[in-house]
Amino acid sequence: MSNSILGRAPEESDVIQAFGTLGSSRLGLGEAVRAKSVGALNRLLAHTMALRDLYKKAHWQTKGATFYSLHLLFDKHHGEQLELMDALAERVQTLGGVALALAHDVVEESRIARAPRGRERVEAQLRRLLDAHEIVLQEARPLAREAAERGDDGTNDLIVSQVVRTNELQSWFIHEQLQEDSP
Length: 183
Fold this sequence. Notes:
The protein has 183 residues and is mostly helical. The protein contains 5 helices and no strands. It has helices at residues 31-61, 67-94, 103-109, 122-150, 153-181. It starts with 30 loop residues before the first helix and ends with a helix.
């Protein structure tokens, strides 16, 4: 078997920090506080990655009279979710944690329902996106409050100013699209 990076199984010695552990940090936050925040942020990161993928799927597979406007909306929201992913992962790293990064980890961590492989009606896509935003928002608000109570103002600020606000606005846009489609 080849010793090159490609084609070989990772060895224990290749992992420099195990998932679920914390590296050292000088942020003025205790290890327990950082650990709680890393867990919460990874959960939101998994939801954000799942939502990003739902937007890209909708972007690629939307069809019908509203194709162009929805195509642009889905692409814009996908980009905003991508920015959230970076912010969440960077905060996890700042706190000394290891951020989720792979699809199989997202599937294990997120409660957001997977979309079918086939093309859905536009209304079904919109409802799936709206449900996903609601999951993110229902989890994000209490996580922000808990971070503030633990004294982790950076995590609280990230969740409130970026995760909650972005998902509220995107949810509103999607909801408005559903209102237009309703009689």
